[in-house]
Amino acid sequence: MATIRLGKRTDGRSPRIKDFVKLAKLDDIVFGGWDIFPDSSYEAAAKAGVLDPHHLAMVKTFLSKIKPMPAAFDREYVKMLDGKNVKKGKNKYEIALQIKADIAKFKKKHGCSRMVMLWCGSTEIFLTQDDVHATPESFEKAMKENHHAIAPSMLYAWAAITSGIAYGNGAPNLSVDIPALQALAQKHGVPICGKDFKTGQTLLKTVLAPAFKARMLGLNGWFSTNILGNRDGEVLEDPGSFKTKEESKLGALEFILQPHLYPELYKKIHHKVRINYYPPRGDNKEGWDNIDIFGWLGYPMQIKVDFLCRDSILAAPIVLDLVLFLDLAQRAGMHGIQEWLSFYFKSPMTAPELYPEHDLFIQLMKLKNTLRWMMGEDLITHLGQEYYD
């Protein structure tokens, strides 16, 4: 992890975050999970081809011992995948109880004192909030009735929260972003966060868009396209799953640029996002952006970005950071939505009356100031007037 400045610039206090706050030690973490395929983590990693064989060989023994539990899965929500390592039950409530039983068994087997769950599964079809999402009671009733508005990711979220476990959503699905589960998180004293890991193209958008706004550069259009050949790309071939991802990727610009405050610069943006499944590329995603901006007197300019990135290499450190920070939040007595972790997400969850902050630098300041606040240190405002008094 990075360093964090404490006190004045002249104090020279910049410890590493892992040395500043009491994070869990990596040697104390046990990993487990669910998958619709029965492969061990080593077999799955070998097939994915993300890591070179010599890197994978270093952790073969460790990964071979991690075998997935049968997953809660329904092809109605992820149409491009199918697998046999799947739970069976008469209704969704029964399957959610099976997940809770898995959690309890895992905790007992490994002697865990605390647990964190992160959804790293595939993007589900596009769903909007339904009446059944309003309260814990209506949500539980809907699970028992196999209501369509209850997706598999919600079953995991419900199982985690009602087991007293912190939950983060790394996909753009609704998942925990509904009133019923947020109310349960408050009731059970559980921190929650999401949605959709911010790793590649959107990461760069949340860097560039604040720069345009800071200099009052206008924006006519932003065309984004992606090619990737991993399982994410395959899943997003389905229009329902793509719609969920598209909504997540489109939101950042409007919140950063605030066209209602700057209509002359940002009111008529033509923003397009495309994702194409291209198997030869594997996990090495390419994100290409054409950005049409304009400056003084309306003179047009262009910026082109070609980000040849590695999807899982960018995502893996985010997963580990979130595990450590969610565990920290729970130990610190923080519960409900953890907006300070928005730094890691494309569609940050917030209280209903708040708009989300997408600007990467505001998000980072919020994260570090939260850590300073937790440890009783002065917050950093960057005013700096004290140096000149």
Structure description:
By secondary structure, the chain is α/β, with parallel strands linked by helices. The protein has two domains: 9-36 and 71-197 and 313-374, Rossmann fold; 201-308, Dihydrodipicolinate Reductase, domain 2 (2-Layer Sandwich). Helix content is 39%, strand content 14%. It has a four-stranded parallel beta sheet, sandwiched between helices. Strands 7-6-8-9 form a four-stranded mixed beta sheet. A two-stranded parallel ribbon has the order 1-2. α5 crosses α6 and α6 crosses α8 (179-188). The protein starts with 16 loop residues before the first helix and ends in a 15-residue tail after the last helix.
